[in-house]
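REVIEWER CHECKLIST
Item 1: Sequence provided? yes
Item 2: Single chain? yes
Item 3: Sequence as submitted:
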Amino acid sequence: MWHLPREGGSDAGRAEGLFRNSPARGEIAGHFAHIDDGQYHDKGRYWSNADDVRQTAELLADSPKYDHLLLYAHGGLNSITDSARRIAAMKGTFKKNRIYPYHFMYDTGLLEKIKDVVMGKNDEVSKRAGGLIDWTNKIIEFLAGKPGRGIWRQMKFGAEAPFQNGGAGLDVLQAFIEPLLAKNSAIKIHLVVHNTGAIYHAHLVQALAKKYPTLRVASVGLLAPATTNKLFRSNFRELLKTPSSQAGIDRMTIYNLTDKLERDDNVAAVYRKSLLYLVSRAFEENPRLAKILGIQKHNGRLTSNLSKLKIRYSDGNTGSGTASESHGGFDNDIDTMNSVLRQILRKVPTQAFTKQTLKY
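Item 4: Structure as written out by the authors:
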């Protein structure tokens, strides 16, 4: 008989010595769908298919253990193994708070390709820039722009394709939502993303609204979102303004770095600003014109007339709901992840994330 994965979580696994550098599929089974080029990736270590998703979804709809369904999109620049590690590290704490986490894995390791592009230009850049950081950045933006835009287009396709006709993302949404609606379930739906996952969920939330015109998403958390402000306005903004009788989003929090930390970050220790700056200035189709949601100085009047939207900025210190020190650090930061928990639960969590539970 098929069962939902047992509660317990990452602490227990580590104590028994079960956790390794690369999680076995059984450690995260029932908590992910692996999608590649819009379709289920049904081979390899972390395979997925429609039957596997539906069995999990139907059991969740019947389970009395959970009050919340969390659909989590990792950055599509991460490797699949990196995503698997995050799923294994997070699942126990979410479940102990009556939150069932379900993660989307998509694309594979595009960040490494971006690093290769940047590092491959290093010698030429050094000769041209003469060690001046400002010139180094500008030259990298120029030299890496063309290959980087190709990589970025590939990533965007991987985020949108699952929600086009016949896409596996649509299948996952239907598999989970239909049983919940059929059983008149009170389980609330939440979305959390990191980095390029914001592009993925921008298409997901529109697919939900189109398919289920009265379905509400209880909360959305965007961690260092790599989407443009334009995509935010077209896919998220109006759903933050709809009345409660229509499809929409009840509340959203964006977690960003301060501009100082964004500028102190780096890509492959060669480009001396964060990945988001490189995306904005080199990889978007209209570089230097593209405004990125995760960059503080691009936020401007973003929250105007949006009472349901809050933006938290990390300066690296605790106390503001996020203390990440880098673009890639938000989903390892206990302040951020515990703020995400509180946003979902609307109360103090039964069990908070700790540095130990967020490690893999």
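Item 5: Key structural point noted by reviewer: The two ends are 30 Å apart (CA to CA).
Item 6: Recommendation: ____
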